[in-house]
Amino acid sequence: MIIILVLALVLATSCKKDKPIEDTGFKDKKESAADDSKDVEDEEDEKTDNKKSAKAKPKKDLNYVKGGDVGSVSSYVEDREIWKGFSDDRHIAIAKRINRGVHLPRILLDSADADEANAEIDKMAEDLMGMYEKYKDEPENFEIGFYASFSTYQDEDLLSIKVSIYDYLGEEVQYYRAFNFSLPDGNFIGDGDLMKHFGVDEDEILTMVEDALMEECELTNGTYYGNVEDYAFIYNSSNHVGRILNDLWDNFDSLDRQIYIDQAGRPQFILTQYQIVNTIPCPLTLELKANTFAKDPISTVYLRMARRLGIDPYDDRYKAFIIYLGAAYNEPSLEEVLKKLQPWSGIFMDYSDPPMLISMYSDDGEIPFINGQECYLIVPKYRNASVSLKELEIVDDGGMVKLAEVENNYMDETACAGPTFICQNTSEIAPNAKITIRYRDDVLEFTPSISQKDGNPVLPDEVINAEGLLDWDSLIHEHGYSVDMYEIINSLIPKD
Fold it and tell me: What residue numbers bound the domain in which 276 lies?
């Protein structure tokens, strides 16, 4: 009986153990958490696939590129180490430096476009070695005369390389070149696709470049040119930014590889491809920043003035506002001109002085003096519009009297951007200067003058007289004017 009872118990236990567990619809906590996490990841991946993230995902298994600019990583780039071909230890030591050494990349992608890029870099290396052979017996020149570097950025979908050549011994001063590839196929990608990868549409790029240029020049001007008190103001960066913009608009569509991604994943625009860089002080690269609040090209100053005057700021008929400030021919009259400008500056520019374009000339290379007295404030419609001033003179063209442009180094080499103070014209009968307002392909040229009939500016239909903008009499203060502008302009007024 005991044996039979034990066998029965064993059989019962075995049956209970083998009975399948009923599916309750609930999972183990760890299993459930893992599955939830996977669902979230799948959802995020789907979002990323549907809309490209503004921040690219960096690849985790990247190698630090020895010889590249600090911070460079890639699994497809290596240093060519061309310094190994130099003749002695001193030159090799100089060339091996990370800062101001001689380093060029070799691209390891297996594609026709990578081969093309490597061939271009081969030519750079050949030119550098030729420069070395030419100057190798002058070590001091070699050390400061030329160097080369490169940077790399890589994420899951693209590789961006920037090559920098600094040749102070030859004709080229600085030269930057960008090479951007899609991964893993190794094909070239253009600037539009490159920026799309970071969530920026192609038609936004030019505006970002313009804004970056304006910001850089404004910073430079405030830092280095704040104490100018004479005609040297024409060398301020604010008096050149318009020329850079004009060059940019003339050549933007004809150039390629204008953008690269730096080691930190920030897009940089290359300006060294533009001729203007070699003629005036100019930034070499511009960091591009997306600003969702600055996509409207219309100037906020223009917009506020238009609304104050009851004018639709988006009316295509109008391109600028103008305010006649008066005539400046001596110290008291100059003060009156600047007193009228001051309320406008306080309301619309937080008391910042606008850049200036002044008609002037000199005799035999002497210090220049003012060649006009009518003072205007020009406010272009577009925030990044350039403003320039050209000298005119009366000429006889086959029996026909007309105004023609004449060369003037003080005026031809300058162009501003945004609201601009202009002084021109010694007489409304024979104007001596022409204003040009340009925004990309939109160009307006005109010569304002003061009517002898009613004292109002004579203007083209595209330019609005904004005299009624403010109650000037109530806003003008006896001693309220820009001392800096006064000192500069007064230094140019001929003294009896």
Answer: 202-287
